[in-house]
Fold this protein.
Amino acid sequence: MISINIREEKASDYEAVKKVLLDAFETSEEAELVERIRSSKFYVPELSLVAVHKKKIVGHILFSEIEIQSNKTTYKTLALAPVSVAQKFQRNGIGAKLIMSGLEKATDLGFDSVILLGHADYYPRFGFEPTSTWEISPPFDVPVENFMGIELVPKGLHKKSGTVKYPTIWQL
Ligand SMILES: CC(C)(COP(=O)(O)OP(=O)(O)OC[C@H]1O[C@@H](n2cnc3c(N)ncnc32)[C@H](O)[C@@H]1OP(=O)(O)O)[C@@H](O)C(=O)NCCC(=O)NCCS
């Protein structure tokens, strides 16, 4: 196991985080999304975390505010996206550390749930399950097993059936 420290991202980390995002993903879309979220009202600075190995940033995770819209009410929740680990450092448990630290921090901050679109064979190990469990739908067409949620507190998504709404800054 390599030594990894997870801490909050600082403005001076932005360039290094961008490098990790560009390395981990095939396109620059995720790096651009992170920049748009950072300069929006949906940004939660405490939930932009970096993974540091020997003073070098090797991973990053961002959670930001989104909503679930039901017929009558709007519920606040969090989107987990993106999470990235530099290719050379993948499969060392760094992604897992970022996700678990983020979920813990989000709970401490009083959020009751997290939603994500991701690999169906990765996120269930952290407790994520398809949002169909709570009759919560994605706003786009995706396989049901890829759109997942987790309750950070008991019944965090209970009786919140509706459709997830992403702010327009998420559009490419
Ligand atoms: C997904 C990601 C953040 C996981 O981080 P990580 O530090 O490599 O993950 P962990 O070491 O905690 O967990 C390893 C598990 O992740 C999955 N995984 C990690 N890298 C993977 C890869 N390149 N391809 C497929 N699965 C991968 C595997 O299920 C692996 O489990 P295994 O060890 O039992 O095979 C990282 O691989 C990454 O940055 N990928 C590119 C960007 C991306 O796809 N982000 C997620 C968008 S949903």
